[in-house]
Amino acid sequence: MRQLAFGAMALVFTPCSALHAQNPAVDEIKGRIFDAHMVQQMFANGLKFCSELDGTNFYFQPRNRVLNLEEYHRSLENLASAQAFNPQTRRPWTAQDAESRWQQVKKQALADQENCALVASLPALEKRLQELQPNAAAAGKKD
């Protein structure tokens, strides 16, 4: 009995979901546009530095500036060798702390570069969506 009820519900909801189903390309573009708008909001201060965020630099939000990865890496090594106080761990910097932070900022540099590329692609994505939507609407009317 329970399986019959679920089967009936599936039949009821299937036509509704078919009406809302769109071209997968349209859905993907809408998702990327949404992501680009979110990046614009969340990474607003960093966007002005996109010309420098090429994978060799990263955006350092607390100081609202761009830092070079290699220079930052040398600074981390110096902090560890001098055993300077690390406020995050509340103890002196270690080689492991420096390596961990180095891995984080390398990932951040790539993410910053990807964020800039996504925001830069926004006009092209919106144009492509406008081109695809009339085609998707026409295909939906044919069915």
Could you spell the SSE succession in H and E letters?
Answer: HHHEEHEEHH
Major sheet details: 2 strands, antiparallel
Distance between the termini: 34 Å
How many distinct helices? Answer: 6
Summarize the SSE layout with pairings:
Layout: H1 2-20, H2 24-42, H3 44-47, E1 57-60, E2 65-68, H4 69-82, E3 85-86, E4 91-92, H5 95-120, H6 122-142
Antiparallel strand pairs: 1-2, 3-4
Helix pairs in contact: 2-5, 2-6, 4-5
Descriptive notes:
This protein is mainly α and 143 residues long. It has one domain. It is 72% helix and 8% strand. The chain has six helices and four strands, in the order H-H-H-E-E-H-E-E-H-H. The strands form two sheets. A two-stranded antiparallel sheet has the order 1-2. Helix 2 (24-42) runs antiparallel to helix 6 (122-142). The longest helix has 26 residues, at 95-120. The radius of gyration is 24 Å and the shape is elongated. The two termini are 34 Å apart.
